[in-house]
Design a protein that fits this description.
Number of strands: 28
Strand order of the largest sheet: 1-28-27-26
Shape: elongated
CATH superfamily of the largest domain: TolB, C-terminal domain
CATH architecture of the largest domain: 6 Propeller
Largest sheet: 4 strands, antiparallel
CATH topology of the largest domain: Neuraminidase
Radius of gyration: 27 Å
Strand content: 35-45%
């Protein structure tokens, strides 16, 4: 399963690199409606989100929309005139919380058959759904507090995971492991549950709040308030070890994870929330979205990060290809090195840097390739001047030598 997903991810990312029209070399603006779009989710080449374009005001109903990154086609999923919110996606199945019955239920949609289906029918609220494979998980208020419930799409059987009388919220799932934030100890801790062994286990024990967990394979990440502000922490299930990811004086919240990459909302820049990332394998932090606007609710699949972005005065859905971003930053570094060598009159070295940068810019369809061409031409002209001057000096030396020999 994991190998198949990685092969699919590599294939999808390669196609998206080729097809995306980019604004800032790695970014694509997915929506440009004059309304508000938020809470994006992504699986493979499909992005889904909640959308208010059919509402007359901020408080009116929302629909679920989708976008195919390969075909560049947008499509509407829900049309009911009520609230459809917080979508999640796995494979060809999209799920969301839905208020059409006067309370929040969980609904789903098959992208292949284009059929909508209801998952929960209890009169209490079921909300914040998440999905992995054929298992749907959500938070459920039917017992007078929020518990975690699940549903098997194949057997059509519903099952209860938590029974504690306190609130269990914000569930997420990977494989057979479900994790959530849990208030049973008088603060929010992260708990987990194994769907195979049916065993529950506590992950965090700090007396502050740990919230908004996300999981990929054996790694769980969350927002942690133990230092007086929210930082990002992680836990390795196989090693049984907790570790800090980002700890500083500003808030980092709403983490998401895929493979070794963790992304989150970060308030480091003048209290604006921007999207940042961290590579667990290299231990490098990096900024994904620009500082000029607020960004919210990041989600990640393979090398594609999606989020909601306010740079146009309201909330749009954007995405960034991290591999393209890495390539562009490498090209930018080579370009700058070329300029430095040019200033030092090391024209051969400068030309090599410019040519390397140009090849990368061309591969990601960056407009900077044209700027590279200008510097390559400028460098070649300087080299030709040097060559002509050298040839002239050599000719003068030969002429002087001939005169000296003639005098002898």
């Amino acid at each position: 399963m994991r190998l198949d997903n990685k092969i699919r991810g590599i294939f999808v990312t390669a196609l998206i690199v080729f097809l995306l029209p980019v604004e800032d070399s790695c970014e694509l603006r997915i929506t440009d409606e004059p309304s508000i779009q938020g809470y994006p989710a992504i699986y493979g080449d499909i992005v889904v989100w909640e959308d208010r374009r059919n509402s007359s005001s901020f408080a009116d109903y929302r629909d679920i929309y989708g976008y195919n990154l390969l075909t560049k086609e947008e499509f509407q999923i829900t049309t009911d005139p009520s609230f459809q919110e917080k979508p999640a996606i796995y494979g060809n199945t999209v799920i969301w919380e839905d208020y059409r019955n006067g309370n929040y239920d969980i609904y789903g949609y098959n992208l292949v058959t284009k059929e909508e289906f209801q998952i929960t029918e209890d009169s209490g609220d079921q909300s914040s759904p998440t999905i992995y494979g054929n298992t749907v998980i959500w938070e459920d208020y039917r017992n007078g507090n929020y518990d975690i419930y699940g549903y098997d799409l194949v057997t059509k059987e519903e099952f209860q995971i938590t029974e504690d009388t306190s609130d269990q919220l914000s569930p997420t799932i990977y494989g057979n492991t479900v994790v959530w934030e849990d208030y049973r100890n008088g603060n929010y801790d992260i708990y987990g549950y194994d769907l195979v062994t049916k065993e529950e286990f506590q992950i965090t024990e700090d007396t502050s709040n740990q919230k908004l967990p996300a999981i990929y394979e054996e790694t769980i990440v969350w927002a942690d308030n133990r230092n007086g502000n929210y930082d990002i922490y992680g836990y390795d299930l196989s090693a049984g070890k907790e570790f800090p990811i980002i700890v500083n004086s500003t808030d980092q919240i709403f983490p998401a994870i895929y493979d070794d990459i963790v992304v989150w909302m970060d308030s480091a820049n003048d209290q604006r929330y921007n999207i940042y990332g961290y590579d667990l394998s290299t231990e490098e932090e990096f900024q994904i979205a620009p500082e000029s606007s607020d960004q919210w609710w990041p989600a990640i699949y393979d090398d594609i990060v999606v989020w909601a972005d306010s740079r146009h005065g309201k909330s749009d859905i954007y995405c960034c290809n991290l591999q393209v971003m890495r390539d562009v930053r490498k090209a930018d570094s080579l370009f700058d090195q070329g300029k430095e060598e040019f200033e030092k009159k090391n024209y051969e070295a400068a030309l090599d840097y410019f040519q390397q940068a140009r090849e990368i810019y061309l591969s990601v369809k960056s407009e900077k390739a044209a700027e590279c061409d200008q510097w390559i031409q400028k460098t070649q002209e300087e080299m030709e001047k040097g060559f002509c001057l050298g040839t002239l000096l050599m000719a003068l030396l030969v002429a002087v030598g001939s005169l000296i020999l003639q005098k002898r």
